[in-house]
Amino acid sequence: MTADSLDAMRTELRGLAEPGIRVQQLRVLRPPEDDELLGVRVPALRRLARAHRDLALEDVEVLLRGRVHEERLAGLLVLAERMRRARGAERATLVDFYLAHTDSVDNWDLVDASAHTVLGPWLVDGPANAPEILDRLAASAWLWDRRIAVVATLALIREGRFEPTLHLVRALCRDPEPLIHKALGWMLREIGRRDAPLLVAFLERHQTELPRVTVRCATELLPADERARFVRTR
């Protein structure tokens, strides 16, 4: 373990804490009671992660296993930085590491900062076991695994590859968790941003199966009259 580098990052992190931001984040994030929240702005965390992007994976693991919220987020952002530069086998190694530590990805902001930037690029590479991994995550009893599966497909959506997302929407449309409903709507909205006719056709087939919040979120960018046609029926 490179203790000096890890200690330096932790020291810098605490120096970025703002009490006023902590109050705001407590209200928005609603972290578990055993979380320590410092109050560090996300842009500052991204800069910190870029500065420490060569942090060893064993040090990233220390960050992820701790109960300081921003340390876990910083560790995930380091993974994203490393994934951005990685290729081939190194990407597979980073994804294996990420999947082995999803129990530490335990809030919506941690998922949304990492799923499409760590798991997503690997999905874009098209490994044969990618559908199996997404299905396994989507079938998990752990809420955050399911959200990871959904949000990770944002990387595919940005490449014009929509079917994995639509598959997960069909699989998770009866999920009991509102945070999954919102993630499904978010991804459908991103599909509609790129192919509105495809989104409309999908909603016409499946709107009665989808949660209300999913439909509302999915149709946010549609013309008002088109959106009203779907929202009114919910």
TrEMBL record:
InterPro entries: ARM-type_fold (IPR016024), DNA_alkylation (IPR014825). It holds the Pfam family DNA_alkylation. Coiled coil: none annotated. It comes from the Bacteria. This is DNA alkylation repair protein. It comes from Streptomyces koelreuteriae.
